[in-house]
Amino acid sequence: MDVLWDTVPATSDGVTVREVADALAGRELAYTTVMTVLDRLAGKGMVQRERAGRAWRYRAAASREAHIAQLMLDALDLGGSRDAALVRFARSVTGTEADVLRAALAAEAAMTPGADGPGVGDDGEQRHRQHGDHRRSDPAGSGALTDRVAPPADRASRPDRAGEAAER
Hints:
By secondary structure, this protein is mostly helical. Helices cover 44% and strands 7% of the residues. Helix 2 (17-23) packs across helix 3. The longest helix has 17 residues, at 95-111.
């Protein structure tokens, strides 16, 4: 998938098995192995393929980001308290990652007509009973949500991953 995501623009006609095999030349994979993997990925809907003469051309069915987002949503659907999992996730991200999430939620709220923001109804109350959630709005009125899930113990000691990436 990395070869398709990294080398094939979404507007492209895709790549052939030979082109993928050539991109993976350092891994010494047989042509038939690459072909089998691409065919299986097509069968699972992860890649799209179209006939181009005698060969098939492959491209990713979704962007890397869309795929990762879907994996995260699938994980939330595994069971248990979806909202507790979201709170746990929110408490485990770095400050920079939290800023990215806040900006994305604000942009989404701005694009939704008549919405006061994500999860906020006309009466200003948080909508978190949808999934049987036990959270409630913070009594201090800060808009923060309370939950029984504790933040990860190592959160304070985690370096900001965005800073690490900038140093590399």
